Amino acid sequence: MNTRASPVASVSEPAELPLMDLEFISRHQIVEKYLAGKLPPKGVQDFERFCSRHPELLDAVGLSNHVNAALRLLEASGKPEPWSKPAPRFYERPLHFALLSTVAAFLLGAAVYFAAGATTLRAQAAALQKQVTEQPLLPATITRPLVLQPNRTALALHFLNIQGYEVYCPRLREPRVLRGRRVEVLLPLFPATPSCGS
């Protein structure tokens, strides 16, 4: 008679590794490692399976004491409990959200205003440019004779300066009224030839 188990039976029944009991848990500090997240994935599965099959042993291993101690430690350090809602972010608070919305609306309005102003200015510039190009030049309606007098004093001073002479020609600023307009005329202080010295 064959006493070996069939492969189907061995697959359907999960083979447990070392038998996990209260002594094994306390000796290997399974609870502390589980709470600290230092158990390997296989150890986590075995410990959770053991707790689901033997819920009465949770009090024996002191799991509730460990949880209470961890919660007291969190409370003493000022950190929130794991099940508490996290603090809202800056943009999730109602007042800050309203403030950000107001600033965004103001910036959007300013952008629209400046864009409209730029469009208006471009239209005005185009209209003025068109007016300048299409407007004909008006012919002159008044003619009058102009008498030009060359400034011989400046030419004389220039050539005397080239020859190495020191030139002295002071001028007077004299206000006059010509044809109803106020003008200033520069007259030499000495109407004769400018004085020069070598």
Description:
The protein is mainly alpha-helical and 198 residues long. Among the domains are: 17-77, no CATH class; 93-122; 155-197, no CATH class. The protein is 52% helix and 11% strand. It has helices at 7-12, 22-27, 30-36, 41-53, 57-60, 63-77, 94-134, 152-162; strands spanning 166-168, 171-178, 181-188, 195-197. A two-stranded antiparallel sheet has the order 1-4. Strand 2 and strand 3 (181-188) form a beta hairpin. It is rod-shaped, with a radius of gyration of 53 Å. Residues 1-17 have low confidence and may be disordered.
Task: Kindly list the characteristics that best describe this protein.
4 strands, 198 residues, mainly alpha, single chain, disordered N terminus
Condensed summary:
With 198 residues, the chain is mainly alpha-helical. The chain contains 8 helices and 4 strands. Among the domains are: 17-77, no CATH class; 93-122; 155-197, no CATH class.
